[in-house]
UniProtKB/TrEMBL annotation:
Residue ranges the record marks as coiled coil: 174-217
Ranges that cross the membrane: 257-281
Presence of keyword Coiled coil: yes
InterPro entries: DUF4349 (IPR025645)
Protein name in the entry: DUF4349 domain-containing protein
Keywords of the record: Coiled coil, Membrane, Transmembrane, Transmembrane helix
Domain of life: Bacteria
Positions of the DUF4349 domain: 74-281
Region (Disordered): 41-67
Keyword match Protein biosynthesis: no
Pfam families: DUF4349
Length: 291
């Protein structure tokens, strides 16, 4: 009987010694979990709205920047100025209109001036980027004599990329603020978030407007075209007779004389003041001699 009891006690002691380390490990894991929960519970929340948003800023900004830089193609704005001397303004204008139709271009602004010396037709033309060089060559060949031509290119890829990246980031911030507005619990937080949303929306509108402007200038180049016809008469080229030229010269001389006469009359205050000053000077000099 004693041997049975002793064997039973030995088995119990062996089982206790085997289960001891496992129970200690379980208790240690439980203590660690409780301590971690306490630490996480004691971490203070972000003190401002900007800190809540800055948590994901680095990852989102970097990914957007790389994506935008890879997808945006080169943006080049082309502009030009041309001055062409023609023999007939109306005929030249008709030729210009035909060339514009062939190249899908249009006139944005038109200004005509007619003086005694010459006629000037100034046109602001918008043409698709791919047809810009073709249009320039067409005007140079068949419209008239080119007096001046100036072509310039402006690469705005860097500006366009920078605005696009900032715009994408602002839209992400706007979505975050809208989500925060739904979860706001106090009036103060709601007003603060709404103010930030309003500012972001204004900045997004400005950025989108700038991008639209750049796209328009890139897709459609601008050409300032001036058609010029000289009306100066010369004895070698003019078909007008001697009598008409004599009358024109006499009229021009008379106009010059009238302009000179009117200019002299405009100086009448000096003609009154100068004699008066001379009179006072002589009178003062005479008194000085008498003394």
């Amino acid at each position: 009987m004693k041997s049975i009891i002793l064997s039973s006690l030995c088995l119990i002691l062996i089982n206790c010694s085997k289960s001891g380390p496992a129970q200690q490990e379980a208790k240690a894991d439980l203590v660690d979990m409780i301590s971690e929960d306490k630490v996480s519970a004691n971490v203070p929340p972000p003190s401002s709205i900007s800190e809540k948003l800055l948590s994901d800023e680095k990852s989102t900004t970097n990914s957007i920047s790389e994506h935008q830089a890879d997808t945006i193609s080169r943006k080049v704005i082309k502009n030009g100025e041309m001055r062409i001397q023609v023999s007939d303004i109306k005929k030249a204008q008709n030729q210009v209109n035909d060339i514009l139709k062939k190249n899908n271009a249009y006139i944005q602004k038109e200004d005509f001036q007619n003086t005694d010396m010459d006629e000037n037709l100034n046109l602001v033309i918008r043409v698709p980027y791919k047809s810009f060089d073709i249009l320039i060559n067409s005007f140079s060949d068949g419209v008239g004599s080119v007096l001046s031509k100036n072509i310039s290119s402006n690469d705005v890829t860097e500006e366009y990329t920078d605005i696009s990246i900032k715009l994408a980031n602002k839209k992400i911030y706007l979505e975050k603020y809208l989500d925060m507005l739904k979860r706001a619990s106090t009036t103060k937080d709601m007003l603060e978030i709404q103010e930030k949303i309003r500012g972001l929306e204004d900045e997004i509108d400005v950025a989108e407007g700038r991008l639209r402007f750049i796209d328009d200038r890139v897709n459609y180049s601008t050409l300032n075209l001036s058609l010029y016809r000289e009306k100066v008469r010369s004895s070698a080229t003019s078909k007008i007779g001697f009598g008409s030229r004599f009358i024109d010269s006499f009229t021009e001389g008379w106009n010059s004389f009238v302009s000179f006469f009117l200019g002299v009359i405009s100086l009448w205050p000096f003609f009154l003041i100068i004699p008066f000053m001379v009179f006072l000077w002589r009178k003062w000099k005479l008194r000085k001699r008498n003394k």
